[in-house]
Design a protein that fits this description.
heterodimer; A: mainly beta; 3-stranded antiparallel β-sheet; B: mainly beta
Chain lengths: 111, 118
């Protein structure tokens, strides 16, 4: 059971918009710690997608956006493309565990 | 170009030991927090350990505390993970990972498979 809760899967047709939620608690997201998002194509290393809740690293399309409110965060992907099919993970810090925590991951299927 | 090149993959018997290494280049290694993150077959990412830039602060997940030791050598731009008393549940791909801002991971190594089996 992951400290940060994500839906196991989401899906959408090309061109559509999907969102992935990441629910934490008062010892991690709710305590004000930043949330980061990673994209992982199976068989490869994860790649940083969103940092500091809503910032995109250079090279990440603006179709990807992040937000945070209270004890939750969300990743939104607009204009879905086949290449977006991957696993997505949120990450933050937990003050009770005194370490980094990841969500369980969400598999995005582009229909 | 940033590179994190890992070595040390292997098959180990339960109770055995293994040392993973990670050689960094393309960024100022001595200013980055370094981490180990693992991924069991078919499972999600699990943070294992973190070491601050000057080795002052070290953290471990409860699942490995007392068995794993993280260390770094800034003169050699290298990160290490000494794994002792290995268990079947430690079987995973282990990633070396670097971040400048607290707990953010900007760069990832290619991953190295550790299999614990008799």
């Amino acid at each position: 059971q992951s400290v940060l809760t994500q839906p196991p899967s989401v899906s959408g047709a090309p061109g559509q918009r999907v969102t992935i939620s990441c629910t934490g608690s008062s010892s991690n997201i709710g305590a004000g710690y930043d949330v980061h998002w990673y994209q992982q194509v199976p068989g490869t290393a994860p790649k940083l997608l969103i940092y500091g809740n809503s910032n995109r690293p250079s090279g990440v399309p603006d179709r990807f956006s992040g937000s945070k409110s209270g004890t939750s965060a969300s990743l939104a992907i607009t204009g879905l493309q086949a290449e977006d099919e991957a696993d997505y993970y949120c990450q933050s810090f937990d003050s009770s565990l005194r370490g980094s925590v990841f969500g369980g991951g969400t598999k995005l299927t582009v229909l | 170009e940033v590179q994190l090149v890992q070595s040390g993959r292997g098959l180990v018997k339960p109770g055995g030991s293994l040392r993973l290494s990670c050689a960094a280049s393309g960024f100022t290694f001595s200013t980055y927090r370094m981490n180990w993150v693992r991924q069991a077959p078919g499972k999600g990412l699990e943070w294992v350990s973190s070491i601050s830039s000057s080795s002052t602060y070290i953290y471990y997940a409860d699942s490995v505390k007392g068995r794993f030791t993280i260390s770094r050598d800034n003169a050699k731009n290298s990160l290490y993970l000494q794994m002792n008393s290995l268990r079947a549940e430690d079987t995973a791909v282990y990633y070396c990972a670097a971040g400048f801002l607290d707990w953010l991971i900007e760069y990832w190594g290619q991953g190295t498979l550790v299999t614990v089996s008799s």
